[in-house]
């Protein structure tokens, strides 16, 4: 089998996880990752045999620290089929012109992350909403962690019952665990201080027909986001039916908090650690089963989003979508889920 040759530009929270997922996929080869700083992450990647690349003006910095690089970004782009850009928000857009050169010349495909503006790529994507839109395009934007969480839920319910409208409050983590310079430390900040927040706008980049408004606040935690989601469906349903529908999807983790005692993000993270999940990642959208409140056509629930890992499966599917692999999208989603072990926590905690 010819493997899809993948490169990752930006080796931080998202880039590291996408690189590790690519390493696990039987149909993909991680050709290299691009780093700009020869720090601990670079040393660890080097020790794990992950080929490191950098940008032209950083070669000396790597040399002076004795960290070996295989070449510069342009060398990597020359030898891959797909570049996954996981640089900080706004930086990916600055690389777009360079990627496009390789795209025109040798068919390079590109994936951007949710921190970029929607116009950076031809389409914005979520695997449960619009996977069929990717083939034929050369660029895709995987929407942000919060938008991915909202879309997974909304698109599943939309397919099963039809969605009339969505109103959601997003309680955002202040920073990722490694980000020791960010806050707030002792405050709840409106972010943004108006309604709708950008999350509703972002949902519409993938599902334009959904009537959605969102509000968002930031709280002093690093572990996960939590959403309070109120949805009006197009037909009456029951709690059991909603649970049954959500339970059919491996990227939804239904947690029974009465049975397990898991009523917080801290306990979820502990469960993930106990299951031996790498970096305590939870790429599934967590839905607390006990909170699912159904009244006719109204559904209200609380859900958790592990911001560091929820977009990883979508990045893997986007790679196969851009390469239009055989059996995409259903076989891709199935393979991604199987290799990443999605669904394993549901069997224990559901
Ligand atoms: P990060 O800061 O953890 O990682 C970005 C990496 O890119 C860092 O290692 C940084 O050194 C490197 N970098 C900076 N400038 C660069 C350049 N010019 N060239 C190459 N590399 C460069 O950021 P992140 O959290 O992984 O976010 C990456 C993207 O993913 C953003 O668009 C973000 O909005 C999105 N995203 C982040 C999260 C999250 O919660 N962390 C969730 C979903 C999506």
The termini sit apart by 37 Å
Count up the domains.
2
Coarse morphology: globular
The total of helices stands at 13
Strand content: 15-25%
CATH superfamily of the largest domain: NAD(P)-binding Rossmann-like Domain
Radius of gyration: 20 Å
**What is the β-strand count?**
16
Question: Quick check: average pLDDT?
Answer: 97
- Order of strands across the main sheet: 4-3-2-1-5-6-8-7
CATH class term of the largest domain: Alpha Beta
Biggest sheet features: 8 strands, parallel
Following the backbone from N to C, one meets helices and strands in this order, namely EHEHEHEHEHEEEHEEHEEHEHHEEEHHH
Helix content: 25-40%
Category by helix and strand content: alpha/beta
What compounds sit in this structure?
nicotinamide-adenine-dinucleotide
Describe this structure in words.
- With 350 residues, the protein is α/β, with parallel strands linked by helices.
- The protein has 2 domains: 4-143 and 312-338, NAD(P)-binding Rossmann-like Domain (Rossmann fold, 3-Layer(aba) Sandwich); 145-310, Dihydrodipicolinate Reductase, domain 2.
- Helix content is 35%, strand content 23%.
- The protein is built from 13 helices and 16 strands.
- The chain has helices spanning 13-24, 40-47, 59-64, 73-78, 91-106, 145-161, 198-206, 239-246, 257-260, 265-274, 312-322, 330-340, 344-349, and strands at 4-9, 28-34, 52-54, 71-72, 82-85, 109-112, 123-125, 139-142, 163-173, 189-190, 212-219, 225-233, 252-255, 285-288, 293-295, 298-305.
- The strands form 2 sheets. The protein has an 8-stranded parallel β-sheet, with helices on both faces.
- β3 (52-54), α3 and β4 form a beta-alpha-beta unit.
- The mean pLDDT is 97.
- The structure holds nicotinamide-adenine-dinucleotide.
- Nicotinamide-adenine-dinucleotide is lined by residues 9-15, 34, 36-37, 55, 86-89, 91, 113-116, 144-145, 176, 307-308, 311.
